[in-house]
Amino acid sequence: MIALAFLLPIGHAARAAEPTEAVAWNFADGVQDWQGNRTSPLEIVDDALTFRATGSDVLIVGPLFDIEPALCDTIEITLKSTTEGICEWFWRSDTEGPYGGFSGERRLQVAVEAHDDWQTLRVQPFWQDAERVVGLRFDPPEGKPGTYAIQSIKVLKFDRPGPVEADFDFTRGDEGWVVPAGDTEQRQAGLHVMPTSRETRAISPHLDLDAADARYLIIEATAPAIPGPDGHVPAFIEFMAKGDSTRHAVPFTMAPAVRSTYNIRVGDHPGWRGGASRR
């Protein structure tokens, strides 16, 4: 079984499927057992969890919870920051080891901007092969002093159909694909997707597919009218095999503002084996 993801070029356009909240902290209700390391005391100011970061190894850790992980699970944070840079999320399945279950293998990054307005950042951990997830840790940009106000932190889940055939006609609807960090709109010509960050992905259902018999991925799509420096629009197909959360990427280029068909040879990739999960 395979799952696919299409890493979308910015500027392309749809409204994402409405998720449910597997776990959520709305900090208007208080600190809720979040704890800081090398931060100022965590406090609630104007209904937001607020703290200052002044040195290195600054982080906040949430209380334990217990959820069953799935492919399209998404971590969402809504915050204000006086500092721009790369934040990191860590997740854990237990509390063992010197770092309480957190490790560099269970880490993902998201960019934050320095802004007075609220910004909502979503990222997919692709933790579906873990037995469970019991905790989160948030690290602000390393070594950058700043003040953070966090309105909420959530783990979102999206409804997903079971394994399906790898044949999608988006004139009929979203066909089970979801866009966790982007907007979508159904149009006569197909699904129109508007990415909200460089990490926006359209993620397929699990595919009922034998990789040995499926050597090409064929996509008919229109890319944004704004090309890259070489006159083309860069895009990626990412995929994961069952039992392996490694994300394999196959890059390709798209013609700007032209409806085209792309024949992408995924079968030559060494990771394309067994069944696959495509995004």
H and E string: EEEEEEEEEEEEEEEEEEEE
Share of β-strand residues? over 45%
The CATH first-level class of the largest domain comes to Mainly Beta
Give the proportion of residues in helices: under 10%
CATH superfamily of the largest domain: Galactose-binding domain-like
The tally of beta strands, per DSSP, is 20
> What does the average pLDDT come to?
85
CATH fold label of the largest domain: Jelly Rolls
Distance from first to last alpha carbon: 13 Å
Structure write-up:
- This protein has 279 residues and is mostly beta strands.
- The chain folds into two domains: 2-16 and 161-278, no CATH class; 20-157, Jelly Rolls.
- It is built from no helices and 20 strands.
- The strands form five sheets. Strands 2, 4, 5, 7, 10 and 12 form a six-stranded antiparallel sheet that branches. Strands 1, 15, 17, 18 and 20 form a five-stranded antiparallel sheet that branches. Strands 3-6-11-8-9 form a five-stranded antiparallel sheet, with no helix packed on it.
- A hairpin with a 2-residue loop joins strand 4 and strand 5.
- It is globular.
- The relative contact order is 0.24.
- The model is unreliable at 1-5 and 7-16 (pLDDT under 50).
